[in-house]
């Protein structure tokens, strides 16, 4: 039997690695877009190297995207690539717009040029809500982004909807709230905290310097959120969905739970540095994913404390074993 084919941009990122694992597990032939780099950026998918076909392309380069789709001929295209770190979007706003906003149009144009029957998933974000007029946020909540990243994602969302309406493409936008994992980039607050706690526990660091502890987010486990992406592309009609846990916690809660897990008092180690505060903060996000739960049958299973425990545990394991930052570690190992 011929395997279904899927192409993932951003396969070397957190979500790309979990999505590739998930699709391989469902019998897909997986193609992953990687950009040329002078150093290795494929730690998260090293364990999948034999099962994925990597294609060199870049969201900045239209021809390379067309060629990637011509080579892979996928049924499903998951556009996960982006400049995804919010603080960097203030330092590199133009580049963020090129990758995270216009990059989506380049992908959609490539799809239109190669095969309009391919199904398209766009990685939209709760950062589009920014400073929302209502709580919790769902698919009808107006956008008020608070960073160049959020603004770029609003463009990516609207162009996806527009190509669906203009050309009848099967294009879906998944509005995902924060999702974390032991493979999360170390600059994001969850992993910064769990790695910091692991280092302090092992005597490798003395303090953990953070920014705004009052910000509240709706955090879930990335391994589960990628399943919702796939489910969106299996529906009869393309649509947009909020994916969230429905529970918000503060950064301070995250800190407290992570330190409690290793039996340490967080107040003894955490320092706040005002320079880590953002020019415009997103204070409080919480998602209402009832549409995804109803139509996709999706629901999260890993609780917030379980997620934090999993991350601290694996950070301690990696540090003890001297493993690379993003190496996939089986849960049973740690
Ligand atoms: P991530 O870990 O930062 O991964 C980003 C990926 O994009 C990497 O594979 C990166 O490749 C690739 N990339 C960046 N610029 C590129 C370019 N010009 N051409 C080709 N590839 C490029 O992000 P993530 O957390 O997995 O998130 C996946 C997607 O979901 C992103 O679009 C993000 O904005 C969005 N999102 C994330 C969350 C979340 O909580 N994680 C929530 C909502 C939406 P390199 O390895 O070469 O850098
Ligand atoms: O910040 C506060 C910070 O960088 C969360 C991306 O995946 O999710 C992510 O964006 C909160 C913010 O994620 C530090 O001020 C305090 O309020 O982990 P973060 P984010 O900005 O929410 C969305 C949904 C995406 O789409 C993005 O791609 O934590 N915070 N102290 C800190 N944040 C960081 N990074 N570092 C600190 O030291």
Structure explained in plain terms:
The chain is an alpha/beta fold and 334 residues long. It has 2 domains: 5-179 and 219-243, 3-Layer(aba) Sandwich (Rossmann fold); 187-218 and 248-285 and 301-321, UDP-galactose 4-epimerase, domain 1, CATH 3.90.25. 39% of the residues lie in helices and 16% in strands. It has 10 helices and 13 strands. The strands form 4 sheets. It has a 7-stranded parallel beta sheet with strand order 3-2-1-4-5-6-11, sandwiched between helices. Helix 1 packs across helix 7 (222-232), helix 6 (189-201) packs across helix 10 (304-321) and helix 8 (251-261) packs across helix 10 (304-321). 48% of the residues are buried. The mean pLDDT is 97. It binds NADP nicotinamide-adenine-dinucleotide phosphate and ligand F7E. Residues 9-10, 12-16, 33, 35, 37, 41, 58-60, 80-84, 99, 123, 125, 176, 178-179, 185 line the site of NADP nicotinamide-adenine-dinucleotide phosphate.
